[in-house]
């Protein structure tokens, strides 16, 4: 999966944040809609799409969407 | 004078005894005089539990009960049970839009189908003594406390609690009692590994009226009561052990 497609999937975690508002450099934890549910959605997304087990710690360490994407890639 | 709370002379099976609440129940049952049969998937951790048991006559059976052979092995070594504590369980936080059938299958295999099958087989094979007390570890997440991303776990626990009421109803003629204990936020490996981090652990305390997490042994004490003759007239009921979390 390429990063653009990942950004599309990432946007599905949110209610009001559209994929067009996101880029690889978006600092996702600074988004208005970011919450503990989004964090759990991200873990579930990594599991469903990549069969990768992300930890809360991984999410905390990442700043941008590209960071998260590369953590997932490193666990493939 | 006899103590109605004693478990002296009783044989009690405990599933999920390799850690957390199951381990605490095993340890406390042994202290109250019971002979316990502990079962779990992880041999090393199950042996740690075993070595913490006081008294004699205890048995350890390593088995994955969600697997047909594992269940058969366990059933083959049981007889004359006075108590069964269903404490094996798994949790995974999954938002509803990710709650696929395969996720349900995985979690409910351990949390719902396995305990039901075990009970059914124990009764059909008559592996119990009259007065058998069954206690299942349910959860406030079943029908009392709804929190995000806990839908599969919670609905599985609700289904378990519901089925066990039917079980209590139909088994009363055989002098079998069936009750549940619903823990709130208890500090066990289930809570501290994986998705729940330090911040979440602290935030949770603010939402608990008693301002602390519960200890596994505090859940075990309610289980001991339900296993003992002191609760002889209780069946089909539930005890919440939650520090006021569901008030």
Describe this protein's structure.
The complex is a heterodimer of chains A (76) and B (247). Chain A has 76 residues and is mostly helical. In chain A, 53% of the residues lie in helices and 0% in strands. Chain A has a single domain (3-74), classed as Non-ribosomal Peptide Synthetase Peptidyl Carrier Protein, Chain A, CATH 1.10.1200.10. Chain A has helices at 3-11, 36-50, 56-61, 65-74. Chain B has a seven-stranded parallel beta sheet with strand order 3-2-1-4-5-6-7, with helices on both faces. In chain B, α1 packs across α8 and α4 (101-124) runs parallel beside α5 (151-171). Chain B is α/β, with parallel strands linked by helices and 247 residues long. Chain B has a single domain (11-241), classed as NAD(P)-binding Rossmann-like Domain (Rossmann fold, 3-Layer(aba) Sandwich).
The major sheet of chain A is characterized as: none
Largest chain-chain contact? A-B, 15 and 13 residues
CATH architecture identity of chain B: 3-Layer(aba) Sandwich
Q: State Rg of chain A.
A: 11 Å
CATH class of chain A equals Mainly Alpha
Unreliable residue stretches of chain A: none
Helix content of chain A: 40-55%
Category from helices, strands and their pairing of chain B? alpha/beta
* CATH topology-level fold name of chain A: Non-ribosomal Peptide Synthetase Peptidyl Carrier Protein, Chain A
The percentage of residues in β strands of chain A lies in under 5%
Low-pLDDT windows of residues of chain B: none
Output the helix-strand order of chain A.
HHHH
Q: Please indicate the count of domains of chain A.
A: 1
Trace the largest sheet of chain B across and list its strands. Answer: 3-2-1-4-5-6-7
Number of helices of chain A: 4
CATH superfamily of chain B: NAD(P)-binding Rossmann-like Domain
Q: How far is the first residue's CA from the last residue's CA of chain B? A: 38 Å
Largest sheet of chain B: 7 strands, parallel
Number of strands of chain A: 0
CATH hierarchy class name of chain B? Alpha Beta
